[in-house]
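User: quick one, sequence for these tokens?
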């Protein structure tokens, strides 16, 4: 709890020039906690960035930049909208490294969406036309009409809080 002492924190941060990531292990707390106490005590925080780096650190950064010119060439530049759209397209569905596959094809998804809009009903409780599907048996997520009721947002929320108002009102 040394960090709650203003003089101790000033000594470590300003005089000894330790960073919050070096002070935190000394106090056995999170670096964010140290940062919050620096703010609370109005201790001026050092600027982030390369201004306060040593010459050795700056030289290491220059060497790294020389080894990775592909990253530096875009500095200060922006991709065109066309390029951004192409990059986005190249990360979708099966082109994405995290893609796990899909059982439903795009055609069947479209058919489901059309059926959903065609079958849309008002809320079974308040007759509000702005309603959404609720599957009665949540273990079987199917489109069987016996398993679906239509509810507005308010009643859908109530149902998921274990209150089932449709059983009280027909």
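Assistant:
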């Amino acid at each position: 709890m040394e960090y709650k002492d203003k003089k101790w924190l000033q000594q470590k941060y300003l005089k000894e020039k330790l960073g919050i990531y070096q002070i935190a292990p000394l106090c056995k707390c999170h670096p964010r906690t140290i940062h919050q106490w620096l703010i609370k005590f109005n201790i001026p925080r050092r600027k982030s960035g390369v201004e306060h780096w040593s010459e050795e650190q700056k030289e290491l950064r220059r060497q790294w930049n020389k080894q990775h010119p592909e990253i530096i060439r875009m500095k200060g530049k922006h991709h065109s909208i066309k390029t951004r759209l192409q990059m986005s397209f190249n990360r979708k569905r099966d082109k994405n490294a995290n893609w796990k596959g899909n059982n439903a094809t795009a055609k069947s998804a479209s058919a489901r969406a059309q059926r959903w809009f065609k079958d849309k009903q008002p809320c079974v409780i308040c007759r509000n036309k702005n309603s959404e599907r609720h599957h009665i048996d949540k273990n079987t997520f199917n489109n069987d009409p016996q398993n679906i009721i239509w509810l507005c947002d308010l009643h859908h929320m109530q149902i998921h809080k274990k209150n089932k108002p449709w059983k009280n009102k027909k």
